[in-house]
Design brief:
mainly alpha
Length: 372
Amino acid sequence: SKRKGTAMMAVSSLHEPSMPAGTEGSDDLMSDFVVLPASDDSIGFGPVAANGPLEHLKLSLPQDDGTSLSSCSDDLTHQEAEERIAKVLQENAILKEKVAKSTAKIRQQFEAFTTWQKQLDKAQNALKAELAMAQLMLDEKTSAEAELRKQVQELAAERQALLEANTAVAQERDEATKQAEAVQAVSVTSEESVSFCDPVPGLLPSKDKAEMSLSQTMVKLHDEQSKTAQLTEKIEQLTEKLEAASREAEESGAKVAALKQKLHEAESRNAALTSQATTKCAELETALLEKEALVRALQGQCESKVAEVDDLRRALLTAEKNCDRARRDYAELLRTWQEFENSNDAGERTFVRVERQSGVAASRQAEKHMQE
């Protein structure tokens, strides 16, 4: 009796939501399994009566599991219930182990993902900082390049001005050299003439000879000063001419630049007008093609209308012929009917009212033929 009561308590504990120690109650995988207490004393089965409550006991798990305790229609015996409970406990332990492994893997993957996300954020921030720095350096390089381009243009203008000034100085130097050579040639000629006119030695005393040489030197100096003044005047005139030529060259350059600008504007206007003319020509060609298509369509409609008119004329002629034939037939029928009335041997008086359909009947019959 005591063993029977213990067995009934052990089996009835299947319906209690008891969980072993260390099991989480919120685990979805464990919610379908009910585990017996870990005490060995609760799992004991002894002889029971044939009509006891265990004979009518049916244990079940979810129907989609292959280990359903109610898979057979007969009642379970004590041994079968014990075997199935042991099997369920074994599967429960296996599932717990799998859940623990899966939880550990998920935790490990989550930690790896968190670490990777932190590294990604760090690398992204570093790349953003480098991008901002590169953008700043690019702006600085762009401004420096613009400044260098401006300086290069200024230096090119200065170089061109220096080249032009050097050319002008070279021309002036060549002219001055030519004039100096001419003056030197004149001086040599004067010296030769003076030496030719020197007094004959011995005819005049040495004192007079010295005085004549001094007078000749003064004359020569005066001549040289005159020539120098003339050359200076010529140089000033040439300088004025050079400045005037420079101003004219600058004015000519400005005029050339203005003419180039006007030429560029004229070319732009010409290109715009050419583009507009091309567009207008294309539009006119398109409109002409559309008009030609419309004319062809109207010609087709006109031809179809002419064909319809011809068909109507033929139908009208046919209707007129049919009307004439109907009139003749009607006259023949009326004459035959009158002859029949006049030749009636029985003497019966037959009153027949015949309407002479002259115009109205003929027109109706013609319309009927036209409809046919």
